[in-house]
Amino acid sequence: MTVNHGAQKLPGAEPGAEVVSPGLSADIMAAEVSRLMATPVVPEQSVVALRRTDSAFDVLDGLLRSGAPLPLHWRVNGDAKRREPVTALYDSVSEALREVGGAAQSFAALRSACALWRRLDAELRSGSPLPEPWQRRR
Q: How far apart are CA 21 and CA 8, in angstroms?
């Protein structure tokens, strides 16, 4: 049996599950985060939905921090003057997804994360620079 050290655990997989996919791309994971954020949930399902979305964002974050190619629809540039607001959006999305609590708290956190993600994604699609954690080192 060979081990694929480049494999990533798929979001929402049960703990201990052997569900991995070699070569997940940032493009696929950005689409998955968007899909999860756009999927309506009832408050009773919000704890699981928040954890699943946080897991997908973590995979995307890890890929981008390690220098993976950017999602094709992001038209980013390196204008450092515009980086601070985008980094603040990134931080806010990340913080909202890490919220811990019951159904009501998770539901509110997920709604907040959805709105923030839409703004971050729109900024990156329109040519804003990458948030600081995703900046490419030259």
A: 6
Q: How far apart are CA 7 and CA 131, in angstroms?
A: 25
Region for residue 14 given its phi and psi (left: phi exceeds 0; alpha: psi -120 to 50; beta: otherwise): beta
DSSP-H helix ranges across 9-137 = 26-38, 46-65, 83-97, 103-125
pLDDT for 46 beyond 50:
yes
* Predicted model pTM: 0.81
Stretch 94-101: mean pLDDT, rounded?
96
> Is there a contact between 23 and 59 (Cβ–Cβ < 8 Å)?
no
Check if the beta carbon of residue 54 is closer than 8 Å to that of residue 37.
no
